[in-house]
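Meet today's protein:

…
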Amino acid sequence: MTPTLVRRHRPSSSPAESRARDWAEIQERMLVPLYEAVYERLEVGEGTRLLSLGCGSGLALLMASARGAEVSGVDPDGRRLALARERLLPEGCGAARLGHGAPESLVERGAPAFNLVTAFDPLYCAGGSAHSMAAALARAASCAERGAPVVLAGWGPQERCAASGALRVAARLADPMCAPARWRPSGRDDLENLAREAGLRPDGSGRVACPYGYADMGSAVRGMLSTGAFDAAARATDEEQVTKELVEALHPYLRRDGTVWMPNVFRYLIARA
């Protein structure tokens, strides 16, 4: 398993680029156990034609490619996508297909349809639009073989996700009128409901431990901010206030050696196109 603790990384030329690189160098690897569990269960390897929605900076695609899969991915964040290209298409070579638009843009005329679609985005129910996600899933499923697995991921039970306290801060600062007690990382049937709205048939699920481990408090703050979950809070207040309250929320998980460790559980759903 890829280590979750990382050392300090080089700064970028702009805050937006820095956030994208923080995601790639600090936060994205926290989901490696989820990627591994799904790929193992679905026997991803040679013959797999994978389409990833929200491929981020490409770590999940890189892992699938290492197993022999043909990989394609789309992401709305152009900076993360640029980092994915650096990983998957060094010096312009390689077979991965990456795009900024709709998944249909990656369909090549005469090429075989995708036989696996993944949406490893646990934060959609912490501030994203489930309706928009369902529409994207439906479009992606239309590019896949009939009956191909479509994998969705989300947070596990709140009591088993230490990061829920930090995300509750994001929700409260973004909407002070919203009672914090009403916020939850993911409802029990959220993934199933999302799949059905996208016209998919649920067909199995699983849970995976994905601890968030950071080398120090600074890395923890940068990693959490890179998820995008705190963007609305920063717009509603200011980044200094968000950082201050985030540090307070993370403090219970600061260990004597200076590292920050938060145990979390994620859930994935396998649906069929």
User: Anything to note?
Assistant: The beta strands are 49-53, 70-74, 97-99, 116-119, 149-155, 201-209, 212-214, 260-262, 265-272. The chain has a mean pLDDT of 87. The longest strand covers residues 201-209. DSSP finds ten helices and nine strands in the chain.
